[in-house]
Amino acid sequence: MYCVKQRKDMVNFTRFDSIISLASYFSNEEICRQFLKEQRWGNVVVCPYCGSVHVYACGDGKRFKCDGCGNKFSVLVGTIFENTKLPLRKWFMAMYLLSSHKKGVSSHQIARDIEVTQKTAWFMLHKIRTLLGQDDNVTLADEVECDEAYMGGREKNKHESKRTEATRGRSTKTKTPVFGMVQRGGKVVAKKVADTGCNTLSAAIRQYVKLGSRIFTDEWIGYKTLKESEYKHDFVRHNVKEFVNGDIYTNTIEGFWGQLKRMIIGVYHFTSAKYLQRYVDEAVFRYNTCRCSEGERFSLMMRRSAAKFDYYDVVNMAA
């Protein structure tokens, strides 16, 4: 029994500097499947059911059979493309367009660009956004700015008879709070939260911010429980129009909120609380990869979509 070998010349992602170059390379389904195999398994195909490397190709050229468990599978099994009836070429284009647009791209635009229905485009985009989830093990350190934002609830756009009373400021009657933390010169983390009380904010800070770091916030009471033995806490008083006091400010995280709100208001127009975290993840992914080229960003998304699992993963699992 022989393991299925793959070609050694891996794709150079720097060539994908435009949608034209992407479409030119992925000209047919066979190339797309070969590309996905390389991204997922490298040189040795691994069974997604049992982890065996004793796999051989079936006669149809699209599936493999595992000698260990006897299951047949394709390169799509276990990825976001599993059971899709759409060409992989359209999936790759949708991923590239979402990752390369500075403020996101709507399902209506994707539907026009890759010639699918708007419903299909919406479904594809949400599947792709599942690849952009944030790493809960990330650690922010040194100088970290923290702030809350409230998404939704634009009452001024509603008819007077349909407006909800007392929704201004930090009210959560019609708005959903999101808590964000950004390391100056580094990454941002943003999560939808149930409330902006002391327990919620303190727990999030302790989870993502290294002890001993310097924390910058506004004067919101939710930060009052931070202990001096854990963090050095400085804040600006926005209620008296103080926005900068030396190196004490929250302008970096405010800049991220500006990008997120422009994305939602300008491109998506509306997001429900149910799907809000996915849009936040998209904005975080774009912010944290802002120095990457389109090809590098697409490469990162492809590695996540392929759920890369190679021979060394099998060895480590067996140990």
Brief rundown of the structure:
The chain has helices at 19-25, 29-41, 88-100, 107-114, 118-129, 198-208, 251-268, 276-288, 294-305, 311-318, and strands at 55-57, 63-66, 72-74, 143-151, 176-183, 188-192, 214-217, 232-235, 244-245, 248-249.
Strand percentage: 5-15%
Q: State the major sheet.
A: 5 strands, mixed
Please tell me what the overall shape is: elongated
Structural class: alpha+beta
Describe the structure.
This protein has 319 residues and is α+β, with helices and mostly antiparallel strands. Helix content is 36%, strand content 14%. The protein contains ten helices and ten strands. It has a five-stranded mixed β-sheet, sandwiched between helices. A hairpin with a 4-residue loop joins strand 5 (176-183) and strand 6 (188-192). Helix 3 crosses helix 9 (294-305). The chain starts with 18 loop residues before the first helix and ends with a helix. 30% of the residues are buried.
Blueprint (SSEs and pairs):
Layout: H1 19-25, H2 29-41, E1 55-57, E2 63-66, E3 72-74, H3 88-100, H4 107-114, H5 118-129, E4 143-151, E5 176-183, E6 188-192, H6 198-208, E7 214-217, E8 232-235, E9 244-245, E10 248-249, H7 251-268, H8 276-288, H9 294-305, H10 311-318
Parallel strand pairs: 4-7, 7-8
Antiparallel strand pairs: 1-2, 2-3, 4-5, 5-6, 9-10
Helix pairs in contact: 3-5, 3-9, 4-5, 7-8
